[in-house]
Structure formats: C-alpha cells, structure tokens
C-alpha cells in the first residue's frame, strides 16, 4: 500500500495499511474500538488458576471489589508490602512483608487455610507478572506434588503475561529442592514452553503432594488424539470444489 493511503505506519507492525484493514505484508490488523473495549474489560478480571478457588492478578484487579465479589472471592493474598489493602471490611487480607525474598512458607500457610475453608482467594502483586505468579507456582508444587517446570507451565498457560524474573525463579528452584530434596536438574533457568500446549480442565478436588492422580491432564498419555479417530466415509458421488464445465458451458 502506498504511503499516501495512510499518513503514518502502523504502530504495531510498522507497515502502511488502512487503520482497520488487514496489512498485505504481515497480516496484522488493528482491532476496532469495540474489540479494544472488550479486551480492557477482560483485563479487569484476575486469571483463574484453579477453578472456584485460586485466582492470580494485579493490584488493579485487587482494587475492583465489585468484580471480585462477582467471582466469589473473599480472601486476598497481597505479596507486595507497598500495595495497600483497600477493603479490609469486605475481604480477609494476608500480606507478605518481606520485599526481597518471598516467604513461601508464610504464603503456603494462608493458601492452605483458604483451601480448608473452601474460600476463593486472589493472589496479587503490582502487575501480576512476577512475585504473585511465583507464589502460585510454589503452591502448586507443594499442594499438588508437581515439579517446578510443570507448575510454571500451568500458570503460564492461564496467564500468558507472566514474566518471572531470574532472581525469583532461583527462589522457586530452591523451594522445589526444599520440597523434593536433591533434584536431577540443578540448572535454575526459566523453561520455554510451546504455545500450542493443550490447556486441560481441572476440578476443585485438590490432591495431596506426590499424588499421582493429581498430575495435570496435559501429561496424560492416554488422551485420544483427534488424528487417531476413524475417517468418515465420503460418498463416491461427492466431489470437492465446483463441478467441471462441460458441453459448451453447461453443468452436467
């Protein structure tokens, strides 16, 4: 597309294309105002990590009391001391006071109590990307018996914007060693997962550590692939595409 058809290049892809039309070079398209408004509304809700129990979000999510009420959340785990607990008369708060090292044991005690009380809980930090996801990953390791990489993948699939820092990941690696003892993989590097991973379903029945039945469904080798299903029979008279033109342009 010629430059005069758009005054400035697209701020996302850098190519010249009309505002709400698909770019001929990369296929990018700027969403319209309605789509942008829908995305903003969805971002107001925290991410559901374990249905009807564990939610992960930001300080902005924690500040929307009415939305939290609609999701049945009654308790809040604040992982950043600088974040103010806004609705002490409405929610039960617990704050992690250490700003440097995450006190995982303190967080686990609170979350386990929430589990026993069957209370829905929001875990949040300032942006919901680093500190609070680490607490949620640690909880999955301890309560489910899942390893670090497996727990991190579970959280990442449900909240793609998670960006755990290397320093915090090192703390998680140490916590994993504390739970499981000496581990084979001693390299505390952030794992890289394929975006094509299948997101499994989950029930509220929480298993105990090292419970083999509690493993996530995405590692279930017994799951039937859609490619292993029998191929449906196609009628012999059926043809794909338009019929061939014969007899001087007349259809048969």
Automatic annotation (TrEMBL):
PROSITE patterns the record matches: TYR_PHOSPHATASE_1, TYR_PHOSPHATASE_2, TYR_PHOSPHATASE_DUAL
Superkingdom of origin organism: Eukaryota
Pfam families the UniProt entry points to: DSPc (PF00782)
Molecular function GO terms recorded: MAP kinase phosphatase activity
SUPFAM superfamilies hit by this protein: (Phosphotyrosine protein) phosphatases II (SSF52799)
Stretch forming the signal peptide: none
CDD domains assigned: DSP_plant_IBR5-like (cd18534)
InterPro entries assigned: Dual-sp_phosphatase_cat-dom (IPR000340), IBR5-like (IPR044212), Prot-tyrosine_phosphatase-like (IPR029021), Tyr_Pase_AS (IPR016130), Tyr_Pase_dom (IPR000387), TYR_PHOSPHATASE_DUAL_dom (IPR020422)
GO biological process, one term: auxin-activated signaling pathway
Annotated Gene Ontology cellular component terms: nucleus
Protein's recorded name: Uncharacterized protein
């Amino acid at each position: 597309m010629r430059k005069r058809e758009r005054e400035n290049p697209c701020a996302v892809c850098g190519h010249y294309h009309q505002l709400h039309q698909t770019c001929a070079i990369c296929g990018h398209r700027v969403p319209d105002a309605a789509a942008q408004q829908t995305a903003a509304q969805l971002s107001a809700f925290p991410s559901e990590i374990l249905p009807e129990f564990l939610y992960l979000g930001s300080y902005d999510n924690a500040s929307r009391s009415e939305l939290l009420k609609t999701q049945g959340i009654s308790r809040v785990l604040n992982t950043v001391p600088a974040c103010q607990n806004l609705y002490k008369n409405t929610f039960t708060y617990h704050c992690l006071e250490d700003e440097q090292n995450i006190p995982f044991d303190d967080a686990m005690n609170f979350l386990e109590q929430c589990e026993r009380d069957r209370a829905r809980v929001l875990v949040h930090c300032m942006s919901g990307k680093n500190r609070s996801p680490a607490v949620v990953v640690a909880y999955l390791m301890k309560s489910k018996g899942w390893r670090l990489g497996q727990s991190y993948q579970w959280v990442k699939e449900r909240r793609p914007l998670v960006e755990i820092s290397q320093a915090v990941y090192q703390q998680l690696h140490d916590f994993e060693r504390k739970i499981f003892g000496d581990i084979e993989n001693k390299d505390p590097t952030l794992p890289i997962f394929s975006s094509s991973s299948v997101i499994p379903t989950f029930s509220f029945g929480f298993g105990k550590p090292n419970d083999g039945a509690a493993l996530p469904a995405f590692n279930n080798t017994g799951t039937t692939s859609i490619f292993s299903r029998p191929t449906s029979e196609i009628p012999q008279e059926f043809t794909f595409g338009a019929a061939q033109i014969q007899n001087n342009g007349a259809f048969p």
